[in-house]
């Protein structure tokens, strides 16, 4: 695959923009035979085996990926929408190539799988793999999500029992229940849900006469938000991380 096509597929802009980046010396490629040697390439048409190609653009390292799978530590005070109404969009936290990866001729970039409220923080998955988004979003494949919930009023065993037994929310007569509920302290609850209704944690706590003061998602399926990933930071998901998610693609 030509170097300009590789850059184009990874979201660095139109083929013409990518050719310009290469010709002006912005792109270096890691030499597979002499790692970690970096070789500057100024010919846009130079051919490479795209898979596993590692390269550097303007000092930032990239690795070729057919599809991008990433996790973001969403900070409080950001919106998951591409067109936010009040707070900055989470997409402004991602580098441009992740936001403009081409797909079937259009520029789509990665999309969040599900949402967190603007005042919630924690683990958010993003990808440009439409089938993966579809599988992860299907009610049949919902996987457990763990939330650290800080509440206004002291928690007691009765509230925990109600959350585990099922509470009725205003839009559906069928009760929703927590798959697990651990009282960490008087004002801190670790709640595991296998559904994803609108404002579900906040509404469940309101249904037991309490109120959510802070909400943080720490885990999806078997994948935990690493403590080393600070709020606002993102990182790639490799095969070992994806294997912790049910129905994930095998890389
Ligand atoms: N439940 C909520 O109420 N808010 C979130 O952001 C996620 C789950």
How much strand content do the residues show?
Answer: 25-35%
How far is it from the N-terminal to the C-terminal residue, by CA? 20 Å
Number of helices: 7
CATH superfamily of the largest domain: Pseudouridine synthase I, catalytic domain, N-terminal subdomain
Residue runs with pLDDT of under 50 for 5 or more positions: none
Shape: elongated
Q: How many structural domains can be distinguished in the coordinates?
A: 3
Briefly note the CATH topology name of the largest domain.
Alpha-Beta Plaits
**For the record, what CATH class of the largest domain applies?**
Alpha Beta
The small-molecule ligands in this entry are:
uracil
Question: What does this entry look like structurally?
Answer:
This protein is of the alpha+beta class. The chain folds into three domains: 3-63, RNA-binding S4 domain (Structural Genomics Hypothetical 15.5 Kd Protein In mrcA-pckA Intergenic Region, Chain A, Roll); 69-139 and 223-246, Alpha-Beta Plaits (2-Layer Sandwich); 144-220, Alpha-L RNA-binding motif (Alpha-Beta Plaits, 2-Layer Sandwich). 20% of the residues lie in helices and 30% in strands. The chain contains seven helices and 17 strands. The chain has helices spanning 3-9, 15-23, 96-99, 130-137, 157-165, 200-207, 239-242; strands at 27-30, 38-40, 54-57, 60-63, 69-74, 102-103, 106-107, 111-112, 120-127, 145-151, 167-169, 172-176, 180-185, 188-193, 212-220, 223-224, 234-236. A hairpin with a 2-residue loop joins strand 15 and strand 16. The two termini are 20 Å apart. Uracil is lined by residues 116-117, 120, 199-202, 215.
């Amino acid at each position: 695959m030509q170097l300009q096509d590789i850059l184009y597929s990874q979201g660095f802009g139109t083929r013409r923009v990518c050719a310009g980046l290469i010709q002006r010396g912005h792109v270096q490629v890691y030499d597979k035979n002499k790692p970690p040697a970096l070789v500057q390439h100024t010919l846009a048409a130079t051919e490479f085996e795209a898979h596993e190609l590692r390269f550097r653009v303007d000092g930032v390292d990239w690795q070729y990926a057919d599809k991008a799978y990433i996790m973001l530590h969403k900070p409080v005070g950001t919106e998951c929408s591409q067109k936010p109404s009040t707070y900055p969009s989470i997409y402004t936290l991602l580098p441009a190539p992740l936001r403009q990866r081409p797909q079937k001729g259009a520029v789509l970039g990665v999309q969040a799988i599900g949402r967190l409220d603007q005042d919630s923080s924690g683990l958010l998955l993003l990808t440009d793999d439409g089938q993966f988004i579809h599988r992860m979003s299907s009610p049949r494949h919902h996987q457990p999500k763990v939330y650290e919930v800080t509440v206004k009023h002291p928690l007691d065993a009765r509230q925990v029992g109600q959350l585990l037994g099922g509470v009725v929310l205003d839009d559906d007569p069928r009760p929703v229940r927590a798959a697990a509920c651990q009282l960490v302290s008087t004002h801190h609850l670790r709640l595991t849900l296998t559904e994803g209704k609108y404002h579900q944690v906040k509404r469940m706590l309101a249904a037991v006469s309490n109120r959510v003061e802070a909400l943080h998602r720490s885990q999806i399926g078997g994948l935990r938000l690493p403590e080393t990933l600070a709020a606002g930071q993102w990182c790639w998901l490799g095969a070992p991380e994806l294997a912790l998610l049910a129905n994930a693609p095998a890389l």
